[in-house]
Structures
1.
Amino acid sequence: MDFSSTVASQLNAGVILPEGLVIITLMVVLVGDIILGRNASRQLSYVAIAGLLGSVVALYFQWDNSQTIGFLGGFNGDNLSIVFRGTIVLSTAFTILMSIRYIQQSGTALAEFVSILLTATLGAMFLCGANDLVMIFLSLETLSISSYLLTGYTKRDPRSNEAALKYLLIGAASSAIFLYGVSLLYGLSGGEIRLDAIAAQLTDLSSGQSLGVAIALVFAIAGIAFKISAVPFHQWTPDVYEGSPTPVVAFLSVGSKAAGFALAIRLLVTVFGQVTPEWQFIFTALAVLSMILGNVVALAQTSMKRMLAYSSIAQAGFVMIGLVAGSDDGYASMVFYLFIYLFMNLGAFTCVILFSLRTGTDQIAEYSGLYQKDPLLTLALSICLLSLGGIPPLAGFFGKIYLFWVGWQAGLYGLVLLGLVTSVVSIYYYIRVVKMMVVKEPHEMSDTVKNYPPIRWNLPGMRPLQVGLVLSLVATTLAGILSNPLFNLANSSISNSSVFQTASTPVILSESIINRQSLSE
């Protein structure tokens, strides 16, 4: 009895109850598809959404849980992981809503798509709470491989096949680089795999260890930067976004990015706390490059999906300001911005899906005069794009203000000023789309809009799209006006997380090497 109770307490399997509900949902969808066939795929999609909402409820009841460590230290279900896991689960639920009509119209199996998407969600959720190297890598690969499959899911489309191949090749290289970096950590720590144990072993850096930690840091950041689409590790993003099924792009832009930032916070703060100035310098460079290239190149795009791809790169640059700040407020600003980014970005992609389903194109020029034919779609897309640009009083404005305020408090004046300038640039290409939809005279409509089909929400799979559109529109609007509860949520997720309570004191790596070398001489 004592042995079993000890094992149960060490496993603490209840900490992954939200993931367990997603696993059960995945099994129900798989088995239901085999038994009921393709005719029941739409009902199975609703079952998947119900399971994901159940996972959100389980996450809510785990808030401020005193027993957060599970599986012998391999998983940490603290408040930080709860917020990120909740963001990922909600992004998946929205993605399924916008996928039903899109996937069925493409002629591919919906239930299989939902199953792969749930598998990617599992990988992302475990990655947010992973507390040892083995679980980090397994979760990362689960997310990555599922993402490759989703990218090439519409196999009859040559663009989707090309996107999947590019994503696979570049993703495999980044995984190998990341694995080499964490294997160096394993060796330098004397065979430890838990993040806190590795950090304890690396507190006293000798000259040889300092070089090894520096290499491990660079390789680990390369893997993380690929996942969050930071320049210069962004090469896959525009082509994959343009060629992939649009619901997949929506998930990658929010769920995968949130998991990448969750991994970055946990790994950098816990393991690389000794070399904080070094990784802050690297992420400063990544933020500068991402904000400049993402916003400038987006100006020249003619496709909505490619424009949103470069916008996603630029948004990652803004979020990195909070990471570089390195304070509790900085991490809280990241959590807050990623949560509201979920609604405004998925709302924009929902509008792109609706327009492409009705017209068969995603070219920006074809949106000309859309207000005359589809006021709801025009309103929703305008609100989401203006929020992404940071126009008050929408949610994106408060998110950027929080990030810039945190950066200014941390003394990152140049980075904040660059963020302000590039935000102004981003407003131009967002408003260009809004102006094209709203301001154009009837005789200046594009041929696509002139032949716009009648709006029929009663078609199979259109109601979920309508629900997703309205929810994202309401959330994007109200999250800005009623942002105080979200501020409190973000701050609470950081202040009550064990990661930041045990973070070690930063030491400048280069000075450590120089001092030890001078002593040895």
Note: The mean pLDDT is 87.
2.
Amino acid sequence: MSHRQILQALTGLLAALFTAMLSTTIVANALPTIMGELHGTQTDFAWVVTAALLANAVSTPIWGKLADLFSKKLLVQLSIVVFVAGSVLAGFSHNMELLLTARVIQGLGMGGLTALAQAIIGSIIPPRERGRYSGYMGAVMAVATAGGPLLGGFIVDSPLGWRWTFFLCVPLAVVALVLLQITLRLEHVRRPARIDWLGSILLTAGISLLLIWVSFAGKAGYYEWWSWETAAMVGGSVVLLALLVFVESKVPEPIIPLKIISQRTTALAIIASVAVGIAMFGSTTFLGQYFQLARGFTPTEAGLLMLPMIAGNLLGSVGSGLLITRFGKWKRYLIIGTLLVILGTGLAGIIDHETEMVLVSLFIFILGVGMGLLMQNLVLAVQNTVKVTEVGSASASVAFFRTVGGAIGVSVLGAVLSSSVSNRVTRELTDAGIPTEGGGTTATLDIAELPAQVQTFFRIAYAEGTADIFRIAAAVAVIALVAVLFIKEQALRRTLDIKPTSASPVEPGLTGGSEMLQTGAMAAVPAARTAETEASRQAANAGNAGDGQTPGASPKQ
């Protein structure tokens, strides 16, 4: 496939990914308004994000396994349909319960788009050339992430209202569906499908139980961190996940292939992805809340203030992709990325309600560059070590653990923020002689209706609480740095699949001989070419002139 053919094939895929990313970011600056109208709490705020991330996480390995068994094109179209259904339901939500249900459905669709986008790219582009196209994907994600908060803020401030932050994604998804049908051409080799349903159930139950425990532990009206409920939930989660490992070691088609995630590069990339997920989702989720509640900006203004982080993300993603394609080295960008994430989150840990906005912009720009250097390149490192028939499962495994880390990060850091705000506001109100209803009732998101003095208490508390979660995110990002340092850099292969034998004179291709890229073929032409006679070279050139093949390449390709 030529560069033009690959771009054409990716058009619909990138459009679908853009829609999914936009649906996530467009809601970010609308959430404080949504919580105020639906009477949500800080815990509800965190769960609106966590519900989608959790559904995304637990469905990602399922979609990844399905991608190795069924048509990737059909699956990505199905995931768009699921996503549209969730978006419509979210737009019509009139209470928190219905909104959370809709977010779960949206998360299921986003899980498919996330896993399948990586799997399709891994199926049609060799790792050495994949950097530039991963850069394009990063650029699309950056534009969606940049435009989402700004567009969402504008919609919330307009007569349309917050519900259109969900409805707007529906026509975009339909356009993506049509483009996929027209532009994406993938050959699928059918093989018997064995879905690990038991593993899927154990995975969902184990992770969900853990997140539910984290979300409500220590909150008024629920249970303490050290209690029989904690023992039951944590113990139950450990048992379920242990059973998951046992089941995955026995079934023929595991939902999380242990032989892949136990490889050194994949295992370390997963550790780094979990830590990065916690730092990224956990810290950036609450940025819009910081701008609106701690600084008093409107949703539209909050969207504009997110642009430095998105610009950094775009720079890191596209720049590293082009450099990796040119020079073939990728580990250095992982190391630089983790260092910048630690630096960015650490600096953001010193902000308060009066920090100069220029400094805040600089801090989140540094964080954005680090994220751009890390996200796609961790997946690239893993895809370079597996066969093309396993690229779906491998890509999905990394995305799964990163999203689980994000869900845990949002849940844990949301609980930290809620507790921090409650304690600080309660203390300030008590010192001022203003009666309170207890710490659990003071972490409100609807502060516009409060008296001016009380609003000031809340703004200070939200600013200091946001700084707390950035400092925690910086500490967690150190784990990612340690994991990245131990990853062994392997040269990016120029072929789609791993060579059967290093000395084979046959040019390697995909399993079954289909979907071979010319770039891989040209790179694999053996040195034995020098032994050919002049006559045979001329014959090969003449035979290939009509179909545009590289001289000397196999006429069967």
Note: The chain has a mean pLDDT of 75.
